[in-house]
Each structure stands twice: as C-alpha cells, then as structure tokens.
Amino acid sequence: MHRVNHRHNRENSMKPELAAILCSFIIIFFSSCPATQAQEEESHNVFYISLMTDSIDEKIRLLEKSLSSANVYIRQAASDQLVSLMLQETKLSAEIEEIIRAQASGWRADALYVTQNLNRENALSFLLGFEQNAADAGQYILNECEKKRLIFSESELIAIEGHYAVSALRYQDALNSFRAFRADENWPSHIPEIFISYPGLINDLGRAFQYTSSGNEGLNLFLQWEGNLPYGVSDDLRYRLIYWAARVARRMGQNDRAVSLFEQAHVFAPDSAQKDACIWYILDSSMSGPVNNIMERMERLIPLIYSGSAVNDIMERYLHRLVSMRNWRNIIRTYDLIKNIDGLNLKAGFAWVIARAFEEGYLSAEDRQLAAGAQADASVFMRIAYNEGDVMLVPAVYYRMLSADSLNLPFMEFSDDIPETEDFCAAAQFLLGFFENGAADYSIPYIRSLEGTLTPDELRAVACELEKAEMYIHSMRLISLYINNEGYVKNRRDLELMYPRPFLNLIETNAEFFNIAPSLLYGLIRQESAFQISVGSSAGAVGLMQLMQATARDMADRIRRAGGPNFFSANGSVDSSNPEINVYIGSYYYNYLLNLFNNNEQLSLMAYNGGLGRVRQWRNASNLPVDLLVESVTIYETRDYGRRIPALARIYEELYYR
Predict the structure, then answer these.
(1) Which of 28, 53, 399, 616 has a CA that sits 20 to 30 A from residue 429's CA?
(2) Strand, coil or helix: what is 416?
C-alpha cells in the first residue's frame, strides 16, 4: 500500500525533534539523581497501571505521569495512548500535546505531524495511506480539515471514501464509492490521475473487485488502464494493474488467464518479495493442471525464487500429488530442481520419499540413475533428509525423525548450557514491566511491535514471563523467532519454552491410565489447543483436546457403559470445556482408535483429526506403507496431522522422558 512517510519531509518543522531531544536529556539527567529514584520508579510503574483503569481522568493522569519515565519506550507508549485518546476528541492540555507530539510513534506520529502541518498534500498522503488500525486518526484529520476549511476535490473525496471502506473491510461499499469515477456507467478509458499520484488506491480497488461479485468488470478495467498508461510511468504502476488483474482472474476461476497475467506482472515486480509472490500464484494456479505443465513451470521459475520459504506450501502439495500418482520420476526431477534453494524445507520430504521409493523397489533402473547415478541408494537420500530436517519446523523435523531412526543417528542435539543475561535493553525492560506490574494481558501488542529489536536472550526472558502467565501460545511463538536462525545453538531451556508441559499431573495420569505415551498426548494437545483451556474451533471442537460435541457424547456413553465415570450433566450434555473431562474423554478416544488400527499411531492420529471412516477408506484403497500413505492423504490438515503429532511427540520424548 502506498504510504508517505511524513517524517522524511520535516525540514521546515524541526521543533518536535528538538523538543524530543531536549525532553530526553532533561529526563535522563534528573533521573540519575538519588532524590528522583523513587519518583522514576513510580513513573515507570504507573504506565502499566494506566492500562488497567477504566476511569478516563485517572488514565490520563497516570499516562501524563508516565511521560517523565527514563525509559524511552514507556514514554513512547504513554504518548501513543494519549494520542489515541486525543484522536477520540479527549481534551488534553497544550503542554501535554507538545510533549506527545515529540514522543509518539508510528502512524500516531504521522497523524500528529499532519495536523500540525495541515495542507492538502500532507492530509491526502495520510488519508489515502492509513491502515485499518489508524481509522480513528483518519477521521480526526478529516475533522481538522473541516475546521480549517481545507477543501478536497471530488475525485479526492471519492478516493478517501473508497480507501476508508476498504480499511474497514467493506468491499462492496468501497466499490460503490470508486464507481463515482464512472461517467454514464462507463469507467474512464485512462487511469485517473489520483491513482497515479497515490498508487495504493489500485490495491484498494483491486481488493474491492476481488472480494465482490464484480470481478469481470475489474479485470477488464485494469487491463484497459494498463494498456493506456502514458509513456514513462513507473514499472510499479504497471505491475499493480497487471497483478490485480491476475488476482481477480484467479478469483473468478480463470486460471490460465491468471497464470499469463502473473507471468507478465513478474517482469515488472518492484522487489524480490513481489517477484516471489507472482511465482507462488503461478505455481498455485497450476497445481490442478497436468503434471507436465507444472514441471515445465517449475523448471523455469524455481531457479528465479529468492526465498524458498515462499513456496514451501506449494512444494508440499506437489509432493502429495506426485506420491498419490506414484510418479517417482518427477519426484526425483523436482528434488533436483530444489536441492540448492535456501529456505525450502520440503527438500527433506522429497529426499525421504525418494529414499523410501528405493527401499520399496518402486524405482526403475532409469529412475535410480536419474536420482544419483548407479551408486545411489536409500541411505544417501535419508542422510539428506536428516540434514535438511535439522530445524524445529514441521514437516522437516518429521523427516529428520524418520531418517534418524533408519540411520541410527541422534534425533535432537542441544546444549544444557543456558546463557544468562541481566543487562537487558530498554525495550526488553519495558516489556518485562508488564509482568512485574500484573499487566500481562496487555503485553502482546507491545511485544509484537518490539520483538524484532530484541536479542535471543531478551526474547527468552520475555517468553519465560509469558509461560509463567500461562500464555503458552505466545511464549512458544517468541522462541520460534530465533531457534532456527543459522548458527544458533539450541539449548534445553529454549526447547522447554517451545514445548512446555502444563497440566503435568492431569496429562501424565491419563496417559498412564490409558497406556498412551505422555509425550504423544502432549504433542497432540499442543497442536490441538496450544494448552488454551477455553479455545474453540469454527467447526465446534472444544477444549484442550478439541473434542466435537458428538464425539464427546459418544465416547462419554461408551465410558459410562464400561463402568467408568459418568460425564453427562442433568440435561444430557458433556462439558468438554472442563480440562479434566476433556483430557479423560480425549485420551479414551485416542486409545479407542489405537485399538481399531492395531496400535498404528499415525493411522490413529489421522483418524482423530480426519475421522475414522475417511482413514479406513484411504487405508483400504492404498497398498503404500503407512509413511507414504500419509503423503497421499487428500486432506491437507489430516496429512499434516499425521506428520506433525509424531514429530512433536518425539520432541517431548527426547526432552522429558529419556
């Protein structure tokens, strides 16, 4: 989206910057004096208290006090909170307004700059570029423009209204607004000047067409505008028009046309991320077509990929399709294409499948020669899968697990030494303050905004506090930000944070009672709910083990008839949100599936996710060994589940039960 950074255009307005420097100097100087230590500690703590108070007057008082903190991130966060109140028409003193203008960050700082330097150019740059969370600021600037009688042209008002609707995800309203550019029901044959000045509007109009039923109108319009672009316009403008025409065509199911347009867009893409996005769409749109077409596009486009991670999901789906077809030769050809692409973790999957095809005798002499010459055998590709899977990412780590077992190599290697750091940066101290002051529930937006500035030691410290607050899904995510960094040595504490063991007594007791490995039960629950008791799915699954109500009732009835506990309430329902009930019934259900599938864990796990009937059907229709059958399962979620839970279980086994 087109954004103008107003702070790059402030040569004529240096007062806010000077005020910020002077304010920081004064605060640091005085906070170093012993007499101000208690005051500084109080100004540090009151910010967190302000987040938890409902009284606007008290909130303002506490936030104003926070502006004197020596921690720049507290001052900045307090300023941002006060700006948000100001944008909601809360009256602040002129002195406080001056301070927060110097301290505010991000879009709030942009909004304040615009209001302080109000003219059409600054206002339009913000109003046609703000994102969804800055809608209040947009309305505030419009109000200020009205007060100062700053008049916009008709086309500018149309664009503002359309952008505002898109930012609120009201795509039909946005399209209705943009249609005001038409004359006599016809769009102009040339792109309006405002779209050239503010190219982000093309994105807005593209989304409006994509997410409404008017795709054909949008497709024709973008292609007409692109064809009539004046000489000398930027490649970025041409790229946006072709790219959104392609997105609309894809949405309409016109895959061949979409592929052709994405091919054209790729030529004009302004950066590597956009080039990779075009390649992703080309390959994604090709997946349902003939394999020969896919291979031709793979051979042409994979060498152009900047980051292999951009197409990991595509390669997973392609591997699934090729295994389902027993097309071992193209699996070998595809591996040869991707083997040197950084960040493409599915290399481990392709290598494992080739190894298993060797073992099972599925490869012809020509296939074996294509794979790696006459000397090739399964162990060569198992070693590749083992090495490529040395990341804490599924499915790569799953293939490492399988290869480790086959080659008798260690699955996980990590250090027991945990580096300890107490000299945390100001950003880390600010984040840790949420937990020291009982404000953990308010911490997540701030963690997300600052996590990129923290070292692994600082991220670990914040993750430890999140774990103590039982916010496991967030502590696990923080560790994932660095645990796979190149050259990083994994340590036990990082892994314990990424694979925690809450509800220890509950889970281990049920695992022992139902003769299930506790590591497997932990892996299953981590995947299903991330240890969130009250989480529910859109399909209606509930609780730690994500039980559907029908399944819970069926299993509860079986448990009762077998002489076990009665989990039915007086009205005949089962409270699956209760952790004790949920884990007991979920463990019983998994044990029930194990018995049906002759203790085969992968088939039982896939049945837990995808349903007993489906797995029986897949098993009966295939003569592939189970590990290759998993690759051929038609439902991605179930296919992924059959790989993910065994890998998670093995990690828990290595960490806690060996």
Answers:
(1) 53
(2) coil
